[in-house]
Amino acid sequence: MLQRDNASQEVIDQVTKAQKLAADGLTEARRAVAALRDDKVPDARAIADLVTAFRLESGAPAELVVNGEPRDLPAEAASALYRTAQEALTNARKHAPGAPVDAVLDFEDGRTVLTVTDHPGKPPAQATSGGYGLVGMRERAELIGGELETGPMKDGWRVRLVVPE
Fold this sequence. Notes:
Elements: H1 9-37, H2 44-58, E1 62-67, H3 75-95, E2 101-108, E3 111-118, H4 133-143, E4 147-153, E5 156-164
Parallel strand pairs: 1-2
Antiparallel strand pairs: 2-3, 3-5, 4-5
């Protein structure tokens, strides 16, 4: 319709981008609703499933490495780890499409650490989405007495959540 009305290429590109953002937002909203309806406590397997789904859906290389002996965590801690992994992967898909992603889940004495790093091969642009993903991750970490670190690295972006036990 825009082409029929002789809209400029810039307008067509903006509408196309808006349609893609709306579709991506709807997909994420559906995932969030599905996750809210799920009563089981997420574990290392659930995070591995997130990484696998990310790899299959995005086509980007992605891997989860689990160090230490996986163990049951309190529901709030497990949920924070899962939601942080989910949001970090969503952000990688959005801000570094196609970039390799490494996720590491370390079961250490007295704490569990999740690190998700994307590697687009260039310094990342400053976060400009205006969304609530990083804010939500930080709030979730604070609620359980955890620590969240996010920020650019030489060749990508890193999210690191430390959850005490």
